[in-house]
Amino acid sequence: MRKAVIDTNVLVSAVRSSNGASFALVSTLGDPRWTPAISVALVLEYEEILTREAIRSKLPMWVIDAVIDSFCVYSSKHPIRFRLRPTLKDPDDEFVLEAAVSNQAEFIVTHNIQDFKGAMAYGIRVVTPGEFLKIIGVWQ
For 2-135, CATH number? Predict the structure, then answer.
């Protein structure tokens, strides 16, 4: 089973459109081929950004709640007892990397590959949603 931390931008893409790899990835929550990994900071980020997106796009809040609840149910959860900062260019991405390292995730899934170059130093592959779906055997 593969373990991955999903960057917030993937969830935003998933709630904006039911077409594409981001939505397909979120739709596989609970699939035994992979497990998402989260931290408290990451879930709070999901909630903040997705709530803002729901207000902007007039999306019902129950959709956002369902996505976040699903991540909380199906995810690997480990407390972060260390800081790796500064490792990445964008300080707002540091907690994503810390969640990946503390959960011993193999992957960070994001649309911003360049933002996570420092993850390779920890043995974490940074991939797009489409690449990850191919890795876990969902897409060809």
Answer: 3.40.50.1010
Q: Which residues of 81-90 are buried (b: 16+ CB within 10 A; e: fewer)?
A: eeebeebbee
Residue extents of the structural domains in the chain: 2-135
The pTM score is 0.92
The per-residue pLDDT for 76 is 83
Sheet holding 107-109, edge to edge: 76-77, 34-38, 2-6, 107-109, 125-127
- Per residue in 61-114, pLDDT (tens digit) is 999 999 999 999 999 877 665 566 566 677 778 888 889 988 999 999 999 998
SS3 for 77? strand
SS3 48: helix
CA neighbor of 10 nearest in space, from 46, 37, 60, 57: 46
For residue 139, give the amino acid letter: W
How far from chain centre, in Å, is Cα 76? 12
